[in-house]
Amino acid sequence: MKTESIKALRRPGASGVDDEHDPEGSSTAFERAHVATLLARAREHLEELDRALERLEQGRYGQCEGCGGAIPPERLEIRPAATTCVRCASDPRRPPRPA
Fold first, then answer.
1. CA angle 51-57-60, nearest 5°?
2. Proportion of the chain in helix, strand, coil states, percent, rounded to 5
3. Can you give the C-alpha Rg of the chain in angstroms?
4. Distance, CA of 21 to chain centre
5. DSSP state, 98?
6. Residue of 26, 39, 60, 95 with fewest CB within 10 Å of its CB?
């Protein structure tokens, strides 16, 4: 049911608001853009969690992709989708994560 509501939000003109003739049109457009950004971030986070589940199934969960060492349980508790230990994550020579 919630998925259907989210899909409805993605359709152009789904809000029924005519931004061009609405005195608060710019606010409505901003809010739509903001919601779209939040949805994109949520999707990205779910994809990261899916990849973490795949690593768990493959026996690689909690193993740093940078150095191969163990990712501390405290880091995994805070960031369950973490792929690197703190040392590798803070290494300035490490390439940035894809957006």
1. 75
2. 55, 0, 45
3. 20
4. 34
5. P
6. 95
Q: Give the CATH number of the domain where residue 42 resides.
A: 1.20.120.910
Q: How is residue 44 written in tokens?
A: 């990205």
Q: What span, in angstroms and rounded, lies between the C-alpha atoms of 75 and 87?
A: 11
The range of the structural domain enclosing residue 45 comes to 25-94
> Helix (H, G, I), strand (E, B), or coil: what is residue 3?
helix
Domain membership of residue 12 (yes or no) is no
Helix or strand (DSSP H, E) at 11 = none
The fraction of the chain above a pLDDT of 70, given in percent, is 69
pLDDT in the model for residue 99: 43
The CA–CA distances, whole Å, from 98 to 34, 51, 54, 76 equal 21, 14, 19, 20
